[in-house]
Write a structure and sequence with these properties.
alpha+beta; Alpha-Beta Plaits; four-stranded antiparallel beta sheet; 4 strands; 40% helix; binds adenosine-3',5'-cyclic-monophosphate
Length: 139
C-alpha cells in the first residue's frame, strides 16, 4: 500500500469545497489515514515548496498558501500517488479533465484547490513534513 500527501488549499476551504473534495477522495477508494487543519506560516509554506523557490510564481504561491487555513491529509491505497494525481487533474484547471477535482473547483493554475505528491520520494518527504509516524492510523 502506498501513501501520498494531499493538501486541500485555502481557496477550496474559503469556497466551502472541503466536504465535496474529501467525498471525491473517499469515493475514489483513497483511504484517509491522517488529517489535520492548519494555517501555514510563511516559513512553513516556503519550506514545503522550497523546490519552487527560484520560480517566478514562488512569492505569490506562498502568499496564497498562507492566505487562510488548509487541510493536510495522508491517503493510502495501491498506487495512491498516481490515482490521486489522476483524480486531481492537471495543475492548470484549463487543462484538467472533466470529473477531476481541479476541473470542478480550481480557479487558475495557482489557486488550484489541491496538492498531491508527485513521486514516492516526494510523498515520503511531504508526509513527514506534516505528520509523525504515530499520527497515521490503521483502518
Ligand atoms: P501544486 O501541485 O501544489 O505544486 C506547486 C504549485 O505551484 C501548484 O500546485 C500551483 O499552485 C503553483 N503553480 C504551479 N505553476 C504555476 C504557475 N505557472 N503560476 C502560478 N502558480 C503555479
Amino acid at each position: 500500500m502506498e501513501l501520498t500527501l494531499s493538501i486541500v488549499k485555502p481557496d477550496a476551504l474559503r469556497n466551502g469545497h472541503l466536504g465535496p473534495i474529501l467525498g471525491m477522495i473517499e469515493e475514489a477508494g483513497l483511504k484517509l489515514v491522517a488529517l489535520r487543519m492548519l494555517h501555514l506560516t510563511r516559513p512553513q509554506a516556503e519550506g514545503f515548496y522550497a523546490v519552487h523557490r527560484e520560480r517566478p510564481f514562488f512569492s505569490s504561491l506562498v502568499d496564497f498558501m498562507t492566505s487562510g487555513p488548509c487541510v493536510v491529509s495522508v491517503l493510502q491505497a495501491d498506487d495512491a500517488i498516481g490515482r490521486y494525481r489522476k483524480l486531481m487533474g492537471a495543475t492548470d484547471p484549463a487543462q484538467a479533465d472533466e470529473g477531476t477535482i481541479r476541473k470542478r473547483f480550481a480557479s487558475d493554475i495557482e489557486k488550484n484547490a489541491v496538492h498531491g505528491s508527485d513521486a514516492p520520494e516526494t510523498a515520503r518527504t511531504e508526509v513527514a513534513y506534516f505528520f509523525r509516524e504515530l499520527d497515521l492510523v490503521e483502518r
